[in-house]
Amino acid sequence: MKVLIAGGTGTLGMPIVRSLLEAGHSVAGIARTPEGADRLRAVGATALAADAMDREGLLRAVEGNEADAVVHQLTALKKAPAGHGGLARTNELRTQGTSNLLDVARAVGARRFVTQSIVFGYGYRDHGDEVLTEESPFGETNGSPFDAHVNAMVFAEQQALHADGIDGIALRYGLLYGNDIDAVVRMLRARSLPVAARGGLIPFVHHQDAAAATVAALERGHGGEVYNIVDDTPATFRDLITAVAEARHAPKPLVLPAWLLKLVAPYGGVVLGEVSMRVSNAKAKRELGWAPRYPSYRDGVAAAP
Questions:
Q1: Which one, 118, 164, 242, 268, has least CB within 10 Å?
Q2: Ramachandran quadrant class, 64 (left: phi over 0; alpha: psi -120 to 50; beta: rest)
């Protein structure tokens, strides 16, 4: 399969590119910077220079190219966002960026389109003991600043799932971890990564498992479907970060009351201190033939070099 990926130089994008190549697919990546293009070429992919937010420039960059599928992995998140403004650019990539990439898919003749989404679209709140499936309400809004993020997720999904002549698939990832452990350790040693004293359960997924699921969705996913891509063991953010600290002999994270964390980080404080959800991955296991190599954060942290 010829695959065109946008966002292929990111923390999740690079594992996806490598996994696609290892599976025998041909990969071309859209790169906004020369450094990004070099990273793609270094692993054996082709690089196309373009900015995904520049529709006309993007279409010029792919002119003359063909692809069977397009993968949308665009985000602007260099680190976990503390405030709502930290997600503004990513929201644009999920709205205008998705529309642009669907135009690209049509231009290159792609009949398959996979877009990233995230489980927080089920609602930034405590869901209690309810186990959320792909049939659960997605896109809950409550008149808060979180609505902008939820609406962007819904827009990206709906555009992909209902694109004429294209089999669109949306992957609702859990909170990604694994390939960024070195960065987490640096933050712990700088005492700049606080956690909530009583955070809720969060669905996690290792970057490598998310990459494997993305390849499985391209190869075996059903058009018009969404899949939860999470591991088997929801845990608190404090659990994960404490495990990293112990494994790397780094200082344990600063522990703050949830109200104080929310005060200094209006977005991150809610996600890490108030949101709690249990999310099922049964559909992805059943239809994609995928299962997490790291069923819990403990396995993923232990496997990190």
A1: 164
A2: left
* Residue 219: predicted pLDDT: 97
Phi-psi region of 257 (alpha: psi -120 to 50; beta: other; left: phi over 0): beta
Please say if the pLDDT value at position 79 is more than 80.
Answer: no
And the tokens for 209? 């498992």
Provide the 8-state DSSP code for 202: B
The domain ranges of the chain are: 2-303
Q: How many Å apart are CA 260 and CA 298, to the nearest integer? A: 28
Element (DSSP H or E) covering residue 205:
strand 204-206
**How much is the pLDDT for 82?**
82
| Residues 131 and 282 sit within 8 Å (Cβ to Cβ) | no
- H runs (alpha helix) in the chain: 13-22, 34-42, 55-62, 88-108, 146-161, 181-189, 207-220, 237-247, 258-264, 268-273, 282-288, 297-303
CA dist 163 and 13 (Å) reads: 23
Q: Name the H helices within 12-137.
A: 13-22, 34-42, 55-62, 88-108
* CA distance between the termini of the chain: 32
**Tokens for 1?**
């399969």
The domain defined by 2-303 carries CATH number 3.30.1330.40: no
On whether the pTM is more than 0.90, the answer is: yes
CA 141 from centroid of its chain's CA atoms: 20
Tokens standing for residue 156: 């990206």
